[in-house]
């Protein structure tokens, strides 16, 4: 479809002799079914009564679906609570595994800590002594 040109069929027969403008027209055969304008929004062409009727219908639908939405929210909260409990139990299980691991490896890491503490203590004693504190007069 090009602006200002006419369309021709496969056998050269004219399909529609009207020029194609900015407005889009839906044509079936020789009858124009709808005229769609890209610049116009559908709600601007609506009657005020139709707008009020549409709002009323949407409000009734919203009221009708409140129990379903409330049930979905409640189910979502239950799922979140279950996942929270599962998450807390996983944290407790990991903490228990960590404590058991620390207890099982204590024959290794306690002597290592004692040796490191002694090395640090002897290193501090072997360095030059600190200056005596100043006595206030």
In short:
This protein is mostly helical and 137 residues long. It has helices spanning 48-64, 66-104, 106-126, and strands at 7-8, 14-16, 24-28, 31-36.
Overview of the molecule:
The protein has three helices and four strands, in the order ββββααα. β1 (7-8) and β2 (14-16) form a beta hairpin. The relative contact order is 0.04. With 137 residues, the chain is mostly helical. A two-stranded antiparallel ribbon has the order 1-2. The protein has helices at residues 48-64, 66-104, 106-126; strands at residues 7-8, 14-16, 24-28, 31-36. The radius of gyration is 42 Å and the shape is elongated. The chain folds into two domains: 7-61, no CATH class; 68-113. Helix content is 56%, strand content 12%.
Task: List key phrases describing it.
single chain, mainly alpha, two-stranded antiparallel ribbon, 3 helices, elongated, disordered N terminus
The total beta strand count reads 4
Rg value: 42 Å
- Poorly predicted ranges (pLDDT <50, ≥5 residues)? 1-6
* Average pLDDT level: 78
Question: How many domains comprise the coordinates?
Answer: 2
How many helix segments?
3
Percent of residues in helices comes to 55-70%
Strand order of the largest sheet: 1-2
Q: Would you tell me the structural class of the helices and strands?
A: mainly alpha
Assess the beta-strand content as a share of residues. 5-15%
Shape: elongated
What is the H-and-E element order?
A: EEEEHHH
Largest sheet: 2 strands, antiparallel
The end-to-end distance, rounded to whole angstroms, is 103 Å
């Amino acid at each position: 479809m090009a602006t200002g040109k006419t369309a021709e069929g496969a056998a050269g027969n004219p399909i529609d002799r009207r020029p194609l403008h900015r407005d889009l027209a839906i044509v079936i055969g020789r009858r124009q079914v709808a005229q769609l304008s890209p610049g116009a929004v559908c709600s601007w062409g609506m009657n005020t009564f139709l707008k009020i009727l549409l709002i009323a219908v949407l409000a009734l639908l919203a009221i009708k679906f409140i129990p379903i939405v409330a049930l979905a929210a409640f189910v979502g909260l239950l799922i979140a609570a279950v996942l929270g409990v599962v998450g807390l139990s996983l944290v407790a299980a990991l903490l228990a595994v960590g404590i058991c691991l620390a207890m099982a490896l204590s024959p290794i890491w306690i002597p290592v800590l004692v040796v490191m503490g002694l090395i640090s203590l002897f290193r501090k004693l072997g360095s030059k002594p600190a200056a005596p504190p100043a006595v206030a007069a």
